[in-house]
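User: My advisor asked me to double-check a structure prediction for Outer membrane lipoprotein-sorting protein before group meeting. I don't want to rely on an old file, so could you generate it fresh from this sequence?
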Amino acid sequence: MKQIKTIIWIAIPVVLCLFSTASTAQDATEIIKKADQKWNGEKSSRGQMTMTIVRPEWKRTIVFKVWTLGDAYSMTLITKPAKEAGQTFLKREKEMWNWMPSIGRMIKLPPSMMGDGWMGSDYTNDDILKESSMVTDFVHTIIKEETIDEIPCWVIEMKPKEDAAIVWGKVVKWISKDEEYLMLKSTYYDEDDILVKTEYGKEIKDIGGRKLPTRIEIIPAEKDNQKTILITNEIEFNIPIKSGFFSQQQMKRLRK
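Assistant: Sure, here is a fresh prediction for Outer membrane lipoprotein-sorting protein from the sequence you gave:
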């Protein structure tokens, strides 16, 4: 009987530990899901954004519109500068395309290009086209809690699942602990666990019927005087839009 009691007392902490780990993992995934829905919209979205690419010797600005439907569809139309206006990017399920009206050519983007900088910026093609899902393609773990600009945050480590086509070795996100689930900071690492870039969410405002950071700054590691700034000028969520909108024919029809 004494042996049985000893086994029980040893087993209880182990079981509680396993339960606690499973619960934390579930909580972390739920937090990421709510943060993702907050930014991308539960069903669909439409927005207009301004991106400024800053380099040591030059700076340029790109204005574009974007439409999304769930995780499977997205369309991005460049409206400025005039030289690149009309260029369109499409993600439809697992296929990605780029329409270049200046040369009348449709280009299919291979998965190997997802880690490349979009339009020469510090955003990747994957950031813009959303090939990967931060909810379903990663394993999430709460690793600590920190405060950013006096806002308490969960710090969640995201590691790619084995079968996911992810360009990062891991991603760490700081998400506000209030009901807003704001993504205030993200760090991106390569497969050797070396920091590649840091992303900051700033200028929190009410926009599109919800509170969001309207200014995103991406700062690459070990590159002085270089960054990309993304300003959300306007955005609507859960708009009526069908999957048929996301087609190669529509890419050619879109106008600024």
